[in-house]
Design brief:
Length: about 240
């Protein structure tokens, strides 16, 4: 019991350090912008263009703070094991097509092609519809964010007793050494310090997949050569055959 308490204390301390670090930058930018904005407001003649830029900086960073805080809350709930998953039989082809339809406009705005390749009569899987939807949405959103051209393909394959889903892009790829790819799923890990994300999206994806008894990983040929995120979910049909 004491060992478990010490482990929880370490996790808490680590989370506090990570959260403090993650929130420090947007808070500092908001403070700076407010200070400059106040200086402009006190002038006899305000530079409207400059005021507009400062307003944008403040608004963007407030939105970033809100998104980061919500992501941290979501991750803390997942890591605590308190999520009550409402599992049901899911038609993956239908679910994937619904998710991609909702994100196609976002992809088209960046001149990206978003397509699906799902085999006929794909077995159903057991999962929480909302969480699996969030998982696939996060991976596609990531692919869109880190791609400037080309195609994003969401596909599925039958594997023994499971279904393998992948989201492949032709984006910027990974600069992290292959032996360290697992770090991408650590909370607050970011390959690029300039990234606008909260750094917990992939950690949330990992939590969802593992809660469903699956595995998630990433493949890439390196920087500038695209990225493929893959995860597995248990196949209902295969489970029935085994039983």
């Amino acid at each position: 019991a004491n060992e478990e308490l010490r482990s929880l204390d370490k996790m808490k301390d680590s989370m506090i350090r990570d959260v403090t670090h993650e929130l420090k930058s947007p808070v500092a930018q908001v403070q700076m912008a407010i200070g400059l904005w106040t200086g402009e407001a006190n002038k006899e003649k305000m530079d409207k263009e400059k005021a507009k830029k400062l307003n944008t900086i403040i608004d963007d960073n407030i939105q970033r703070l809100k998104k980061t805080i919500q992501s941290i809350l979501d991750l803390s709930v997942l890591e605590s094991g308190r999520v009550a998953y409402q599992k049901e039989d899911l038609n993956l082809e239908e679910l994937i097509n619904q998710v991609t339809a909702g994100l196609k406009l976002l992809a088209e705005k960046k001149n990206l092609s978003l397509t699906t390749r799902i085999p006929d009569k794909l077995p159903e899987v057991s999962g929480d519809r909302q969480e699996i939807t969030r998982l696939i949405s996060n991976l596609i959103d990531n692919a869109i964010k880190y791609s400037e051209s080309g195609e994003i393909v969401v596909s599925a394959l039958r594997r023994p007793r499971k279904i393998e889903i992948s989201v492949k892009d032709q984006g910027i790829g990974l600069s992290t050494p292959k032996g360290n790819y697992d770090k991408l799923f650590d909370r607050f890990f970011q390959e690029r310090s300039s990234s606008e994300g909260s750094g917990v999206g992939l950690a949330i994806c990992k939590g969802i997949v593992e809660a469903h008894g699956g595995k998630i990983w990433v493949e890439s040929e390196g920087k500038g050569k695209g990225t493929t995120f893959k995860f597995t979910l248990s196949s209902n049909n295969e489970e029935k055959k085994v039983s």
